[in-house]
């Protein structure tokens, strides 16, 4: 279950800007993308992940991804970060 990985991660970056920074820095281990997120938000991040060789995992909804991240609002993207 992908949500478990997010919940158990020591560090996560939530949101497009934060996740993008981590991917570019080579610190993102895996990126989770909500299937119901706006493609205008997710397309660039997914392309960056492919370029940088970061695994992309799709999850069912922004609401559930946000919940797994421990926030009250939906999240389109969350990155599990390696320190």
Written overview of the protein:
With 83 residues, the protein is of the alpha+beta class. The chain has one domain (2-81): 60s Ribosomal Protein L30, Chain: A (2-Layer Sandwich), CATH 3.30.1330.30. 45% of the residues lie in helices and 24% in strands. The protein has four helices and four strands; from the N terminus they run αβαβαβαβ. A four-stranded mixed β-sheet has the order 1-4-2-3, sandwiched between helices. α3 links the parallel β2 (28-34) and β3. The chain is globular and about 30 Å long. The N and C termini lie far apart (23 Å). The mean pLDDT is 95.
How does CATH name the architecture?
A: 2-Layer Sandwich
Which spans have pLDDT < 50 for at least 5 consecutive residues? none
Mean pLDDT: 95
Count up the helices: 4
- Please report which band the strand proportion falls in: under 5%, 5-15%, 15-25%, 25-35%, 35-45% or over 45%: 15-25%
Tally the structural domains.
1
Largest sheet strand order: 1-4-2-3
Class by alpha and beta content: alpha+beta
What characterizes the major β-sheet? Answer: 4 strands, mixed
Helix-residue proportion: 40-55%
Write a compact overview of the structure shown.
The protein has about 80 residues and is of the alpha+beta class. About 45% of the residues lie in helices and about 25% in strands. It has a single domain (about 1-80), classed as Ribosomal protein L30/S12 (60s Ribosomal Protein L30, Chain: A), CATH 3.30.1330.30.
């Amino acid at each position: 279950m992908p949500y478990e990985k997010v919940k158990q991660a020591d560090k996560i970056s939530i949101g497009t800007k934060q996740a993008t920074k981590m991917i570019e820095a080579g610190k993102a281990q895996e990126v989770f993308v909500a299937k119901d997120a706006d493609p205008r938000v997710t397309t660039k991040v997914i392309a960056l992940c492919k370029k940088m060789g970061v695994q992309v995992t799709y999850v069912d909804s922004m609401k559930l991804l946000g919940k797994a991240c421990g926030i009250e609002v939906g999240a389109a993207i969350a990155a599990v970060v390696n320190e």
